[in-house]
Amino acid sequence: MKYVLAGASGFLGKALARDLVANGHQVVRLVRRPPSTPDEVRWDPARGDLDAGALDDPDVLVNLAGANIGRPWTPTYRLKIRESRVSTTATLAAVATQLDRRPALLTQSGIGGYGTDLGDRILTEDSDLGEGFLSDVVRLWEGALEPARDAGSRVAALRTGVVLGSKAPAFQLLSLPFRLGLGGRLGPGTQYFPVVSLTDWIRAVRHVAENDSVSGPVNITLPTPATNLELTEALATALHRPCTVPVPAVLMKTALGEFAWELLGSKRALPTRLQSTGFTFHHPTVTTAISAALA
Asked: Which stretches make up the NAD-dependent epimerase/dehydratase domain (predicted)?
């Protein structure tokens, strides 16, 4: 298959591109500078500028672009978070309507769209989006897919938890205190903390891309949700370190502002759509996912 990949320079983009090429697929990378290799095409999503003709009949468009949410959300940075996701998705959706053969269009999305702190409530793809900044971003982000859907493309929004991989920035940040012997739960630890292994994230993206029956929102999280305490204890065990230095919620709120709630809030999300279409996880538990990340 021929994939067009936005966000190919990020951690997930690089990992997905490597896997696709290794499995015989063709990958065209969208870049915002002059192309330096034959597999690159220049675009300017802020202006909605992408030459459909340069893509030469792709099968799948994948958008992984977006500013990092793991920093304080100042008014200026809120705008960047939103626009970096909406403009890229909208540009790809517009291009999809111009192609003779309608490609599938997949965009990364976020579990944060369901809301901030939902306790033990089970979240599936049929659950309503919640309230708050990230929920509003997800509404706009996924809403930008609509022109492509209306034109006949199959579209999917990949609502992904924290991806666990040895070089994943979030995982490196999470594991650093444990490597120093200073690790512990975040806040109360009772909050459900949606994660997935890098291997299963890549496999899930390919599953969605290759199966015409999969569309709409798709949760990419462990099928056995873990609490933050279970996650941190499993990480400590895998690293042979203690799990005795909890990070107080008040400290996280002071340091991270509103973003702290993405770590302290509970989201018990299940990958219902993946499993109902035949997807099986290589790493279905937090213990196996962490082992895979450290391998």
From this structure: 4-102
pLDDT digits (tens, 9 = 90+) for 237-249: 999 999 999 999 9
Cα(50)–Cα(220) distance, integer angstroms: 29
Pull the structure tokens for residue 242: 């203690």
In a domain, 10, yes or no: yes
Q: Say which CATH number the domain at 55 has.
A: 3.40.50.720
When pLDDT is cut at 50, 70 and 90, the band that residue 227 belongs to is very high
The whole-angstrom separation of Cα 295 and Cα 293 is 6
pLDDT bracket for residue 2 (50, 70, 90) = very high
Residue 30 lies in a domain: yes
* Type of residue found at 180: L
272-295 pLDDT per residue, tens: 999 999 999 999 999 999 999 998
Range of the domain at 204: 2-163+198-221+268-281
Domain count within the chain: 1
